[in-house]
Amino acid sequence: MQQSKLFPKTKKEAPRGAESINHRLLVRAGFVDQLMAGSWTLLPLGWRVVAKINQIIREEMNAIGGQEVLMPLLHPKEIWNETGRWDKAGEIMYKLKDARGREYALSFTHEEVFLDLVRKHITSYQDLPIALYHFSTKFRNEPRAKSGVLRGREFMMKDLYSIHADEEDFWKFYEEVKKAYSKVFERIGFDFRITEAGGGVFTDNNTHEFQVLAEGGEDTIYYCSQCDWGLNEELGKNKEGSKCPKCKKGELIRSKSIEVGNIFPFGTYYSELMGINYVDKNGKRKPAWFGSYGIGSTRVMGTWVEVSHDEKGIIWNKELSPFDVHLVELKTQNSKLKAKEIHERLEGAGIEVLWDDRDVAAGEKFVAADLIGIPVRLVISDKTKDKIEWKERTSEKTELLSVEEVIKKFHD
Question: Which residues form the Aminoacyl-transfer RNA synthetases class-II family profile domain (predicted)?
Fold first, then answer.
């Protein structure tokens, strides 16, 4: 990809009113653009990052038997009335009427839509379990949309829904999802904890959140220094330094954090309200067990920027970076031909390249490279002669390598 053709260009200044790090850096580096409070356009660089996040999630959802679908965003009032959430969740729902006076909501979640879907297709225990997921836009009427892409009024989310014949099978799958989510966040590279939390407008049951430790986080959690115990502060006060209530050995640590995922056990509550029943092997009619599981893709991107940056800009890792390398061409008489050849050889070796071919000063190119934050910067100039200067975003060290050595280093 030639940087001269990349839309848009980087900005020198952060947007006015930007309070959070991810807001300032993602806008300046050209990853997102704000339409209005809580509403964002994913620009080409931002979309490449979110696509990589989604692919990691997709692979782990498929590994536990999830099947990908795409459900509607416009929902009729009647389906929300079946669970009572048309009124219960009214404060965060966007509602509208068509020309005939019919009422609808824009999707803030898809539990009701999923249950309506499966009840059309299940009759007996042999049809269960079912696990479907999708990536879609969610709409939530946040009273104060802030923190960049961390708290939007519309945002991308992966939600998985599962339905089971009995409690044992449900809890077995619930734990499988918990492990799959842990794999997702481990692959992404987060320092995270699993905490117990309240269910909000989703359920009266306690749920589990996946919280990334972050100084700028909106949540406060307690977690054990020795075991996997964790709790959101909303469920009760704890004292930092006190003994863990689970293992009795570790001490409790208090931390600010950002929620990037959550999982909800619903039991048979929604199934009973919506008539999601099946016939068991003894011919008895029973309600199905149900759960939902969410990860905010755009929120993950914003969270990464919150925890991985410096005074120069974003620091991506290879798993999330929009490109593998940033090829910086410092203009010389023969550089254009040399840069084009190197670009083609790297791309031919399966390495994704952002090629800065712009006719601007070297300092401006280096500033832009640090701001965008691709893990490896490659420089070609008169000084490098027939070599390429390799520099990693997290280091000041440079080394001169041949094209073959660069390719080998990537594939080692």
Answer: 38-322
- In tens digits, the chain (412 residues) has pLDDT values of 999 999 999 999 999 989 899 999 999 999 999 999 999 999 999 999 999 999 999 999 999 999 999 999 999 999 999 999 999 999 999 999 999 999 999 999 999 999 999 999 999 999 999 999 999 999 999 888 888 999 999 999 999 999 999 999 999 999 999 999 999 999 999 999 999 987 565 566 789 999 999 998 999 999 999 999 999 999 988 899 999 999 999 999 999 999 999 999 999 999 999 999 999 999 999 999 999 999 999 999 999 999 999 999 999 999 999 999 999 999 876 666 789 999 999 999 999 999 999 999 999 999 999 999 999 999 999 889 889 999 999 999 999 999 999 999 998 8
Class of the CATH domain delimited by 3-310:
alpha beta
DSSP string, 284-348: -EEEPEEEEEEE-HHHHHHHHHHHSEETTEE---TTT-SSSEEEEE---TTHHHHHHHHHHHHHH
CATH number of the structural domain 325-411: 3.40.50.800
Indicate where the chain has its CATH 3.40.50.800 domain(s): 325-411
pTM: 0.96
